[in-house]
Write a structure and sequence with these properties.
587 residues, six-stranded mixed beta sheet
């Protein structure tokens, strides 16, 4: 932990002290913005400025009207469209009733961890009535990412697309370099009749599992199969013979999704803003947090065709939203537009074989730049568990317990007075410890049918794992069958990683290492760890800062299925974390 002399006092600055900074802070902020964008962007790139206002908006879904939190009154929120190399400056003003942060999901944030967004990890939340300006450069990434709130369950409605196109004059590396006729963002989500914040607060109060959603959505609309929804079903106009690029984003809180388009083949060309070798398929499986870019040639008889999505629910006996959302792709042929749209056949909700076929068919477009040496070989167990109920309490989990979740038996606890990144930068003690275990404290048969109850209760803690700058990191992510095995979409902030292999059962280095794809593994920022199985990822720790790793099922991160990496500075300014901006929110 490196101490910057004279800066510890900033952590405890009051609001009145902050206001005394006045004009000086504003001038310093403008100067830092100018310097940041001029240093990090090439002449061909542009600076883009956006204003996000967090505010309530009235909407009607499933026959009921209520207010939701939005950005600029839009649900989903506004799409941010940039070219690779552009500098983004986004001022977020919180006119809502809840603390909020915004995470730029999948953006590398090279040296700009202060703009990553997870609450109490890289910043304190933006309080109602206050604002914060995120500033970062999108570099060496092309494709589809997204942005979303990273406070409680606000991201249920506070989210939108982040589209990154090649620089001017640089062609797409697919479709023979020809640009698609249209680019269509398709955001998959979940809808609750209740306020999602109330849903999670009610569950947290008792330790019970939260209520499942009442509908799935496409671009904010449930579709024809739900009550009071048909007139607002999302419809995409297409033309015969056109090849379009569909940019899928799974913004659902807790549901992995199978997706299919009736009568049409989808060719995957990118995932998580990394290009892939073309892969033709009739069905996608997209986990929360993941994006998938597909080309579709609209070569069927003119008519109307359903895009449909339903849950992939891998946990046995666990409730889930067993509904189907639809949107319509309409060729615009009047004679063919009067009947019901054609419906695709979707896999069964528990079709793990189809989910596995999809994920294991993805290959990186080019040969991987993959170091052969491994400096940090980590083994992380991921899964749920149960806390014993405190004396005198009446808890809502099984047998009067509270649901929890953990990595290597540590259930992550967020700080509440300062962010981990601030504590690291200023050398503040007592906020976190750097003793996250590299291996599970107890080795056992992780995927056994009856795991000992003695292993069901993790230890709460705010622990990070330190990495030296430039270290090559390999992580075995091992799912467990404690309480219920499930596919866990694990997301790492600030990094892309190669997925070397995945499989079922317990990882065995003696036999499973031979399965590693070291030639063209897919690169992602969110990997699905198979139900009762494992996945192996590898990356280079070349981005200093504090980076959250967590399950992107929000119910699980709420329960503690998270940890953080603390990547130390390297040598010189370009390998070091930037100083915090003067408008960083106070706790």
């Amino acid at each position: 932990m490196r101490v910057r002399a004279g800066k510890q006092a900033v952590l405890g600055m009051s609001s009145s002290s902050r206001s005394s900074i006045g004009l000086y802070s504003q001038l310093l902020l403008l100067l830092s913005l100018t310097l940041l964008c001029s240093q990090l962007q090439l002449a061909i790139a542009k600076e883009q400025y956006h204003e996000f206002v967090i505010q309530e908006a009235a909407v009607t879904r499933l026959c009921r009207s209520r207010t939701i939190m939005t950005v600029n009154g839009q649900f989903p929120g506004p799409a941010v469209e940039v070219s690779e190399g552009d500098c983004l400056v986004v001022k977020v003003t919180n006119n809502g009733n809840y603390n909020v942060t915004v995470h730029w999901h999948g953006v590398r944030q090279m040296r700009t961890g202060w703009s990553d967004g997870p609450e109490f990890v890289t910043q304190c939340p933006i309080r109602p009535g206050e604002s914060y300006t995120y500033r970062f450069t999108v570099q060496a990434q092309e494709g589809t990412l997204w942005w979303h709130a990273h406070s409680s369950w606000l991201r249920a409605t506070v989210h939108g697309a982040l589209i990154i196109r090649p620089r001017a004059g640089v062609p797409y590396p697919f479709n023979d370099g020809k640009p698609p006729a249209r680019e269509i963002p398709v955001i998959l989500g979940e809808w609750w009749d209740m306020n999602p914040i109330d849903v999670v607060r009610a569950a947290t109060a008792t330790g019970a599992a939260p209520n499942t959603s009442d509908a799935l959505t496409v671009n904010g609309q449930p579709g024809d199969l739900y009550k009071c929804s048909s007139k607002d079903t999302t419809t995409f106009a297409v033309k015969s013979g056109e090849t379009n690029l569909l940019r899928f984003i799974n913004a659902a809180l807790n549901t992995e999704l199978f997706v299919s388009l009736a009568g049409h083949t989808m060719t995957v060309v990118g995932v998580d803003a990394s290009y892939t070798k073309p892969y033709a398929t009739s069905v996608l499986m997209i986990a929360p947090g993941q994006t998938t870019d597909v080309l579709v040639t609209f070569d069927q008889p003119p008519g109307r065709y359903y895009l449909a999505a339903r849950a992939y629910a891998s946990a046995q006996g666990v409730p889930f939203d067993n509904t189907t959302t639809t949107a319509v792709f309409d060729y615009g042929a009047a004679a063919a537009s009067t009947g019901s749209p054609a419906m695709p056949t979707l896999p069964a909700y528990n079709d793990t074989a189809t989910a596995t076929t999809f994920t294991t068919s993805l290959r990186g477009l080019r040969k991987a730049e993959l170091p052969s040496r491994v400096d940090e070989s980590l083994f992380f167990t991921v899964g749920v568990g149960l806390f014993n109920c405190s004396g005198g309490q009446n808890c809502g989990g099984p047998n009067n317990t509270r649901f929890t979740a953990s990595i290597n038996n540590v259930s992550f606890v967020l700080p509440s007075t300062v962010s981990i990144l601030q504590a690291h930068y200023h050398g503040a003690a007592g906020v976190f410890t750097a003793d996250f275990p590299a291996n599970p404290p107890v080795q056992f048969d992780y995927t056994a049918q009856n795991v000992s109850r003695a292993l069901w209760q993790p230890v709460p803690g705010t622990k990070v794992y330190k990495l030296k700058y430039g270290a090559v990191v390999q992580i075995v992510l091992q799912g467990t069958n404690i309480f219920a095995a499930e596919n866990h979409p694990i997301h790492i902030h600030g990094y892309d990683f190669y997925i070397l292999a995945e499989g079922f059962g317990n990882f065995n280095a003696a036999t499973d290492t031979a399965k590693f794809n070291l030639d063209d593994p897919p690169m992602r920022n969110t990997v699905g760890v198979p139900v009762n199985g494992w996945a192996v990822i590898r990356f280079v720790a070349d981005n200093p800062g504090v980076w959250l790793m967590h399950c992107h099922l929000d119910v699980h991160i709420t329960w503690g299925l998270a940890m953080a990496f603390l990547v130390e500075d390297g040598v010189g300014v370009l390998q070091s974390l930037e100083a915090p901006p003067p408008d960083l929110p106070l706790c």
